[in-house]
Amino acid sequence: MIRTRITLTLLVIVMLSACSSSPDRSDNEQRKAAETNAALGRQYMDRGQYEIALEKLKRSVGFDKTYAPAHTLLGVLYETIGEVDKAESEFRLAVKYDPEDGDVNNNLGAFLCRNGYSEEADRYFQIAVDDPFYSTPGIALANAGSCALARNDLDKAEKYLRQSLTYDNKMSAALFPLAELSYRKGTYLQARAFLQRYEAVSQLTPESLELGIAIETRLGDTERVEWYRNELWEKFPDTMQSPERENKGRQ
Q1: For 206-225, what is each residue's pLDDT tens digit?
Q2: Which end of the chain has the least Cβ crowding within 10 Å, N or C?
Q3: What is the CATH code of the structural domain delimited by 25-98?
Q4: How does 113-145 read in b/e, with b if 16+ C-beta sit within 10 Å?
């Protein structure tokens, strides 16, 4: 069984000049201050300085509680430090304040899918795709497909994943789950083809190598099986626990 691969897309937050916090500032100044602090929070998050990032992001929503990107960043940060309930609250606030935005809906969907609420997540992925200004609908479709695959809805998963490839035929987030899906359906040559397309655009992972072992075992290509085993051993020796691991979830 593959680990559900869900892609988070965060809005690029433009740094603006800092403003002093006077009580009579205009709404526009409040928004600028919120943007500035959110941008600083994002920078500190990227550097792993989570405590300072949290301070900046809280300050951002303090200036403007309706600024959805700050709530999204708070969601990411809380999830990163293991405070899942707070993360969910922030992702939902982002959607509350910008209900049609593709990024915030994809991010809430991604969070829900990662935490086992794949059917609810589907709704938010669909809203993201329907946003005409959303720049990466293929990502939301790939996420929706991976989510459907996680709950073993193979037909819906294939529909979403193939739609995702119409936006970008090299999208690794769609190619790998399509390889897994094809394997589950027993179409092993197709699974091999999708996996090879994935390998052409993405780095090898323990999951992709294990899937390769499983596919080539079914196809009877012992040389390829051995190649995948060697790559797994050389690149990820800690994953080589037992032969049973290779086919776990793929019976």
Answers
A1: 999 999 999 999 999 999 99
A2: C
A3: 1.25.40.10
A4: bbeeebeebbebbebbbebeebebbbbbbbbbb
